[in-house]
Amino acid sequence: MPPDMSTEPVVPQPARRFDEGERQVLYDIINARRDVRNAFRPDPIDPAALRRILAAAHAAPSVGFMQPWDFLLIRDPDLRAGVHAAFLRANAEAEEMFEGDRKALYRSLKLEGILTSPLNICVTCDRTRGGKVVLGRTHNTDMDLYSTVCAVQNLWLAARAEGVGIGWVSIFRPDDLRGLLGIPDHVEIVAYLCAGYVDELYAKPELEARGWRKRLALESVIHHDGWPAPGPKPG
Amino acid sequence: MPPDMSTEPVVPQPARRFDEGERQVLYDIINARRDVRNAFRPDPIDPAALRRILAAAHAAPSVGFMQPWDFLLIRDPDLRAGVHAAFLRANAEAEEMFEGDRKALYRSLKLEGILTSPLNICVTCDRTRGGKVVLGRTHNTDMDLYSTVCAVQNLWLAARAEGVGIGWVSIFRPDDLRGLLGIPDHVEIVAYLCAGYVDELYAKPELEARGWRKRLALESVIHHDGWPAPGPKPG
């Protein structure tokens, strides 16, 4: 153990208890979180709130305490115009992959707020951070990407609590964004987020409300002591 | 749009505001969350609490509203002995990848609670759910895995609020668990979690407290309008 740790005893502390009302706050935030694509207010996010949101992301778990994430705050109009163009190119390809009614419904959906939100956040994963051998990543090499996603979900919940909507844009060719943002090869783009205050939200996920896909019953995704025997499965 | 949606107007609602005290509850839960490897209490998790925890996971965002996750609740002692053996095999390989002081420190760490926690939860991602073409996954094919990780992070925070510790075990060969749990090829194992009530927790991540790796400064992972120019970077 490094000498500088010798003064710090590693002893567990009594775990804080959260009462029923506190638990309910968490559940309310989790259930009120939405993927926001429109109706972003144009006013900038309060810097103190933004810092709290990013601190929540930075408090996520990470494999081997790697903390592999970076948060690129994108406000520059030219950069965002470039990202928007990359979305439009990919989305034109995407809509051709759907047929009939699904294609019409797909076309009717607004899938990003890159230019209308006051802030975009590109969340990346530096795959080299912490060296070649990372504790906990020795046999499952994507664990650092998963750690970064944990940071995204913390960010998303914190944003919701602060009145800030988040929309995760995934329809682009990663190399297009890599070029625009100067992201090196050893760093992977995990999430491209649009962020801004919102006054209104949908009560349900928009894709559920618009009939794209139904909510699965919770019971259908819970199984005991292994994968379920073949039979009816969630669609 | 399917006819059964015609009676349901898709209109946004006023977004609930969370006050400063409510936001602080979320931040307290986020900051008190730990990766737990030991000191699990043996008593079973209250079924109502477990259901709330899994419901929080199921409320996670998912690409194309795919909800690709399943939760395998593992209590069977033989299955868990098999998973533990798979961990031991992989961990013996892992410790050989570290050298000198790091190897000694690695060996001193307890990295799982597979047998001592009352419940294991294997969280999987069904890559075929929702069909071949999934909205939002057309250009970034790992989005369904990332959705599943969002569910894991929701689960972890909900567990913390319920007094339940979670430890994410990632040191195993996935095919070993696939065989033990009967998980088919089209389903990917995203997380293997140990779960149980905890009375005490470390104030900091254990790897930080034990000197494995330092906490990065938040400022060092925030950048503006693109990847930073070459220079000192987080280690």
From TrEMBL, chains A, B:
Q: Which GO terms describe its molecular function?
A: 5,6-dimethylbenzimidazole synthase activity
List its EC numbers.
1.13.11.79
Question: Has keyword Cell inner membrane?
Answer: no
Stretches assigned to the Nitroreductase domain: 30-197
Q: Which InterPro entries match?
A: BluB, Nitroreductase, Nitroreductase-like, Nitroreductase/BluB
Q: What gene name is listed for this protein?
A: bluB
Instruction: State what protein this is by name.
Output: 5,6-dimethylbenzimidazole synthase
Q: Does the keyword Oxidoreductase apply?
A: yes
Q: Name one Pfam family in it.
A: Nitroreductase
| Keywords for this protein | Flavoprotein, FMN, Oxidoreductase
